[in-house]
Amino acid sequence: MIRKNPSGDLPLIHESAYVDNTAILCGKIIVEENVFIGPYAVIRADEVNEHGEMEPIIIGANSNIQDGVVIHSKAGGLVRIGTNTSIAHRSIVHGPCVVGENVFIGFNSVLFDCVIGNGSVVRHNSVVEHCAVPENFHIPSTTNVHSNQELNKIEQVSPQASDFSESVLKANHELVKGYKKLQNEF
C-alpha cells in the first residue's frame, strides 16, 4: 500500500523497483531503481521535527528490503540506505540512520541513531545504536554495540561474509526482474 503521510508527502518509487502488494510505504520516501521491497515491509516517513520538517527515507538503487523489515525515523531524521545494500528479514532501521553502500544487515537486527560504513556486515540478531561503524567492519551475530568505544573490539569483514552478502544481493536483484514480470499477470 502506497499512501500519503499527514504532511501530504507521497512516496516516489522508480518504475524499475518492485514493491510487494503487502508492503506499506507511507510519506516522504524515495525508492531508487531496481530496489526490491518484500512482503510485509513497512517504511514510514511521517514524523516531523520541532520546526515541522522531515528528512526523507531514501532506499538506494539495487538494494533490497526483505520481508517484514520496518524502517522509520524519529522526529523527521534522515534515513538513507545506500546502493547495493541488503536489509534482511524482520530487521528494524530506525532513524536517524545512514547505512552505506554494499552493506548487509542480518535477520532480526536493529539499527538506531547510527552510521554503518560502506562494505560492512551486521550479522543476525544484532543491535547497533549511537555509534559510527567504520567501513568494512564485521559485527558478529547477537552482538550489541552501543558506543564508538565498543567498536574497538570488533573484527573487520571476512571474505566469506562479503561473499554471502553479494549472493543475497544478486538473488534479490533477480527477484525484482521476476516479480516485475509477474505484475503483468494480475
TrEMBL record:
Transferase as UniProt keyword: yes
Pfam families assigned to the protein according to its UniProt record, in alphabetical order: Hexapep (PF00132)
Top-level taxon of the source organism: Bacteria
GO molecular function, one term: acyltransferase activity
UniProt KW keywords: Acyltransferase, Repeat, Transferase
PANTHER family: CARBON DIOXIDE CONCENTRATING MECHANISM PROTEIN CCMM (PTHR43360), CARBOXYSOME ASSEMBLY PROTEIN CCMM (PTHR43360:SF1)
The protein, known as: Carbonate dehydratase
Native source organism of the sequence: Sulfurimicrobium lacus
